[in-house]
Amino acid sequence: MAKFFTLLALTITVIGYGQSKKTFQLEKIIFHTSMCYGYCPSYHLQVDKDKKINLFAEQVYKNVRYQSYEPDTTKTGYFTGIVADTTFNKLTNELQKIGLDSLEFDGATCCDGSIKTIIVYYNGKRKYLKSMFPPVKAGKLISILYEICETSKLQRTDERFKIEDGITIR
After folding, report:
1. Is the pTM value of this prediction over 0.70?
2. Facing residues of 104 across strands?
3. Backbone φ, ψ for residue 166 (5° rounding)
4. I need a surface site. Which of 34, 95, 109, 130 has the fewest CB within 10 A?
5. Nearest Cα to 167, choosing from 122, 123, 119?
6. 68-120 pLDDT, tens digit each
7. Domain locations in the chain as residue ranges
8. How far is residue 101's CA from residue 154's CA, in Å, rounded to a whole number?
9. Is the pLDDT of residue 49 over 70?
10. Helix (H, G, I), strand (E, B) or coil at 74
11. Cβ-based neighbours of 121, under 8 Å, separated by 6 or more
12. Among 1.10.357, 3.30.750, 2.60.40, 3.30.1560, what is the CATH number of 23-156?
């Protein structure tokens, strides 16, 4: 009888472990940043599960580190492309690790900073996060999203597109 209960407990543990390690499936992620009272770039990004990128860079500045705050028209506009495999893997690994099901942003939109909005479609779910002050836990994810906006090899396009969240792209 003891062997039966031991085997039963082991079976339940193995089944439970297999279910808790469910494969993460990214369908798409959307990232918006707003302008601020300063020189924050304003991006509207969508990355699909097939690594396709749509980016509307609404406002980007030249040489912000050197305080030469003039708009960079070469980096503003509509762009499309494919995210690099290594960057896409960083993104999906971070999304898996961050604990999306329990992650919350406080919704704060006050003050003078850039508002970050992240909408993630994964495993048949939709997670909406928005705040001027995202939690520290989301810092690496936000850095990866900025990296995609700023370093991906993208093709300028004349095609206008709309990215979710009620943002009407001119």
Report:
1. yes
2. none
3. 75, 10
4. 109
5. 119
6. 678 899 999 999 999 999 999 999 999 999 999 999 999 999 888 999 999 99
7. 23-156
8. 31
9. yes
10. coil
11. 26, 27, 28, 29
12. 3.30.1560
What would the two tokens of residue 155 be? 């093709």
Q: Which of 44, 68, 67, 63 is nearest to 55 (CA)?
A: 44
CA distances in angstroms from 7 to 13, 52, 55, listed in the order given: 10, 47, 54
What local confidence, expressed as pLDDT, does residue 16 receive? 47
* Sequence-ordered alpha helix ranges (H) in the chain: 2-20, 85-98, 139-151
Are 32 and 120 a contacting pair, CB within 8 Å?
Answer: no
Whole-angstrom Cα distance, residue 128 to residue 144? Answer: 18
Among candidate residues 148, 122, 155, 126, the one with its CA nearest the CA of residue 43: 148
CB–CB of 88/28 below 8 Å? Answer: no
